[in-house]
Amino acid sequence: MPAVLLCLGLCVAAIQVAAQHIRLVDGAAVAARLMGRGDDPSAAIASTGAHSHEAYAVDDLICVRLSANHSVAVIGAIGISSDASACAVADDEGNGR
User: Fold this and answer.
1) 32, 36, 35: which is closest to 91 by C-alpha?
2) For the chain, percent helix, then strand, then coil, each to nearest 5?
3) How confident is the model over 16-28, as pLDDT tens digits?
4) What is the pLDDT of residue 34?
5) Dihedral, CA atoms, 66, 85, 38, 49, nearest 10 degrees?
6) Which residues lie below 8 Å from residue 34, measured CB to CB, with a gap of 6+?
7) Partner of 61 at 20 to 30 A CA spacing, among 21, 39, 86, 96?
8) What are the distances in angstroms from CA 43 to CA 34, 47, 74?
9) Around Cβ 55, how many Cβ atoms within 10 Å?
10) Per-residue confidence at 80, pLDDT binned at 50, 70, 90?
């Protein structure tokens, strides 16, 4: 019985880690698109729960990298974190069209 509970707990933790990673990937993509249009990406970054972010340019692309520590007790205790990056084309005119 304890082995079943341990396995179930690890499965739930893995699902939570995957969900957090999906939030990071989506948030990085939204933030990159906003920065590419010249808008403020702070709301998109804050909604992901990321503890750090970095924006950088590669040729005509604006890229955003987000990092977050996991809040799941078992996973967070061993120091595993997730990183996600996304890039979008920079709009030189700043009008989004």
Assistant:
1) 36
2) 45, 25, 25
3) 888 888 999 999 9
4) 93
5) -30
6) 40, 41, 44
7) 21
8) 10, 6, 29
9) 14
10) confident
Q: Which candidate, 88, 73, 19, 75, places its Cα nearest to that of 48?
A: 19
3-class DSSP assignment, residue 77: helix
Helix boundaries (H) for the chain: 2-37, 42-46, 73-77
The tens digit of pLDDT for each residue in 12-59 reads 888 888 888 899 999 999 999 999 998 999 888 888 888 899 999 988
Q: Give the position of tokens 């939204």.
A: 30
Question: Rounded to whole angstroms, how far apart are CA atoms 3 and 57?
Answer: 48
Distance CA 27, CA 66 (A): 8
Q: Which of 42, 55, 35 has its CA nearest to residue 96? A: 35
Is pLDDT above 70 for 85? yes
